[in-house]
What we know:
The mean pLDDT is 91. The chain has one domain (9-94): Winged helix-like DNA-binding domain superfamily/Winged helix DNA-binding domain (Arc Repressor Mutant, subunit A), CATH 1.10.10. It has 5 helices and 3 strands; from the N terminus they run H-H-E-H-H-E-E-H.
Amino acid sequence: MPVAKLEVFEKPLVDLAGFARALAHPARIRILRELAGRGEVACMEIVNALPLSQPACSRHINELRKAGLLKSRTRGSHVYFKLDEAALKRFCQAMNRTLHSA
């Protein structure tokens, strides 16, 4: 089976694919929906909203954070997350430009 060689593609396409990969699970989209328009939300509030274990939720949250879609803040032993609306907007605009450039 052939292996994808990312170096043969333009950097903007590789970056866009990485961003899209972060959205490639329904739990991650659900997390974004939970955070949309709400400001900061405690991690356990996100965990309680999903039908997944706490470790599974943490893995999905971490993927979104690594992709730059979430901002986090720690206060004592609590972690709060916030959707980075600007990053999501940039992703949507980049996808639109990519698909409609001819």
